[in-house]
Amino acid sequence: MKRVFISGALNSFTEEKGFLDNVHRMLKMAGKVRNAGFAVYVPCNDILTSISNGGLKHEEYYAHDLVWLGVCDAMILTPGWEGSKGVMGEISYAKKHGIPVCRTLEELELI
Questions:
Q1: What is the DSSP string of 38-52?
Q2: End-to-end distance of the chain based on CA atoms, in angstroms?
Q3: The CATH number of the domain where 26 resides is what?
Q4: Domains: count for the chain
C-alpha cells in the first residue's frame, strides 16, 4: 500500500479560510485518498496530540511532518494550499527527495 502525505494550508486564520475549514479540507481529502486504497498521513491530526499532551512550537510540528513526508510515496495538495509557506516548504522538500507532488486524486492514482 502506497503512503500519501496530505498537504494543505492549516494555520490560516483569515475569515474565509479559518483553521477548522482547513482541517476539514485536509480530512476530506484524506478520506478520498484512503478510499482509493492508499495509506495516509494527515498533519492536522497533530491537533489531537496538542489537546492531550500540550502544544509544541510550530517548528517542532513542521519538523515532525517532514519526517513523515520523507517516508511517503507521494504528496497530494488540498484545495486552498496556495500561498501557504508551510506547503511551499513541503513541496520543495518533496521535490528535493524525489517524492511526487499531486494536485488531484486522478494524478495520484497514476503513480
A1: -EEE-GGGHHHHHHH
A2: 12
A3: 3.40.50.10400
A4: 1
